[in-house]
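[Discussion] Sanity-checking designs against the backbone

I'm trying to build intuition for which residues belong where. Below is a structure token string of 200 positions. I'd appreciate it if someone posts a full sequence so I can compare it with mine line by line.
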């Protein structure tokens, strides 16, 4: 599918969603369950793999393609869903955690800038979206049909960078260090491990 076709499809889907927004059923899963599930995936390290990243993309209105070169954000092992509010077909959620820094593709660690706040909040805007069913007619044509009776909460926007907790970041760096034969990356990994071990 060309970029132009993909944009047209996205705009068309958005317009259809807006037209049926008033008739959407309430999702069976509350928004906090979806956010908590996403953070469990992050803490488990799922967002650091292509398959896990793709699965997590289903929670967003605009999934982001996987790339090996994205920085990995590192947060505290302790995090909590602090606030959830709903208003019709939208919701807002805030997860509190301590942002510790990030890893680059060469396993170098950069600490987060100093902050006067011990913890910070990650905000999420959510929307209710209907399910879609791909229907194939007898002549082989495919049609994407919207079902407003089956709905889901999705985070509005794209995924941004992958993130994980410091304990999982340590495991990730150890695994990547074992996989590489590049002496510089191994050296970077050793320095990173030394820093991360002070944080867990």
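Best answer:
Here's mine. Compare freely.
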């Amino acid at each position: 599918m060309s970029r132009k076709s993909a944009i047209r499809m996205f705009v068309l889907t958005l317009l259809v969603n807006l037209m049926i927004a008033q008739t959407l059923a309430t999702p069976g899963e509350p928004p906090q369950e979806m956010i908590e599930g996403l953070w469990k995936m992050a803490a488990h390290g799922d967002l650091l793999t292509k398959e896990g990243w793709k699965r997590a993309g289903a929670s967003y209105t605009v999934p982001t393609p996987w790339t090996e070169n994205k920085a990995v954000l590192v947060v505290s092992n302790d995090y909590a869903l602090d606030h959830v509010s709903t208003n019709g077909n939208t919701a807002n959620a805030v997860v509190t955690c301590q942002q510790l820094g990030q890893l680059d593709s060469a396993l170098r660690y950069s600490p987060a800038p100093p902050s006067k706040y011990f913890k910070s909040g990650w905000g999420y805007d959510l929307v209710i979206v209907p399910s879609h069913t791909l229907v194939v007619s007898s002549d082989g044509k495919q049609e994407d049909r919207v079902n407003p009776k089956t709905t889901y909460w999705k985070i509005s926007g794209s995924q941004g960078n992958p993130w994980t907790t410091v304990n999982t970041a340590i495991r990730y760096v150890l695994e990547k260090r074992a996989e590489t034969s590049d002496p510089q990356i191994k050296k970077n990994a050793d320095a990173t491990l030394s820093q991360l071990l002070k944080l867990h």
